[in-house]
């Protein structure tokens, strides 16, 4: 089975190929000659995930999936959410985003948050959605050097280490993205 993964992020393509094994052939956007970013103009994580997958299906007629992730912080009414990548503005900057989150939390004790990944698969025109969530809390300062994005300030539930203090293997035991992709993987196996 051939499936397009709608991302310009080659690192993600590699990760996903590894995760899904060789039962499905993953084709990246650059493999099909699409160089531009698909505009993420929806107002929700779900919406952007669907928009990217649907764009490719409409244009190429090949089954396609796309992922979108956001960090939702209760005290900030779900922010940065769909704006996670560019919370502190464009060009996106992880340090500036973390700084803005800590500033807005204003030393509050209410620090509950979650990462949410939504994968949308458009297969032969039908739409399927897979969600991966990890609950946690936001720390007071940055800890650890691994990972990316908000990893240095995110403690997954019942953990004394931030994602940035974990190896990728450890992080993937809890991670939103790994959980969502596990569902996609199970679904694709069922289909074979
Ligand atoms: P994307 O939809 O996967 O590109 O994620 C959007 C933004 O969410 C990223 O630019 C990061 O700021 C943040 N993010 C996504 N996944 C993670 C993660 O695993 N750790 C930390 N931050 C993440």
What do you see in this structure?
With 192 residues, the chain is α/β, with parallel strands linked by helices. It has one domain (2-191): Maf protein. 32% of the residues lie in helices and 24% in strands. It has five helices and six strands, in the order E-H-E-H-E-H-E-E-E-H-H. It has helices at 10-20, 45-60, 94-105, 168-174, 176-190, and strands at residues 2-5, 25-28, 64-73, 112-123, 126-138, 154-156. The structure holds inosinic acid. Inosinic acid binds at residues 68-71, 84-85, 97, 147-151, 163, 175, 177.
Which strand-content bin applies to the residues?
15-25%
**What is the domain total for the residues?**
1
Order of helices and strands: EHEHEHEEEHH
CATH class: Alpha Beta
Distance between the termini: 9 Å
The helix-and-strand class reads alpha/beta
> Could you tell me the number of beta strands?
6
Major sheet description: 6 strands, mixed
So how many helices?
5
Low-pLDDT parts are none
CATH architecture: Alpha-Beta Complex
């Amino acid at each position: 089975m051939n499936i397009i993964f709608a991302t310009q992020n080659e690192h993600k393509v590699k990760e996903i190929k590894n995760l899904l094994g060789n039962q499905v052939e993953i084709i990246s956007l650059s493999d099909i000659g699409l160089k531009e970013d698909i505009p993420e103009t929806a107002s929700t994580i779900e919406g952007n995930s669907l928009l990217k997958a649907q764009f490719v299906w409409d244009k190429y007629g090949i089954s396609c999936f796309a992922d979108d992730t956001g960090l939702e912080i209760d005290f900030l009414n779900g922010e940065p959410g769909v704006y996670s990548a560019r919370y502190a503005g464009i060009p996106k900057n992880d340090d500036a985003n973390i700084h803005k989150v800590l500033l807005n939390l204003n030393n509050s004790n209410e620090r509950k948050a979650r990462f949410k990944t939504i994968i949308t698969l458009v297969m032969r025109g039908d739409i399927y959605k897979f969600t991966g969530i990890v609950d946690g809390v936001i720390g007071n300062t940055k800890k650890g050097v691994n990972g990316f994005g908000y990893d240095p300030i995110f403690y997954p539930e019942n953990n004394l280490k931030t994602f940035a203090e974990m190896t990728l293997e450890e992080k993937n035991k809890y991670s939103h993205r790994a959980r969502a992709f596990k569902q996609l993987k199970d679904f694709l196996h069922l289909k074979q």
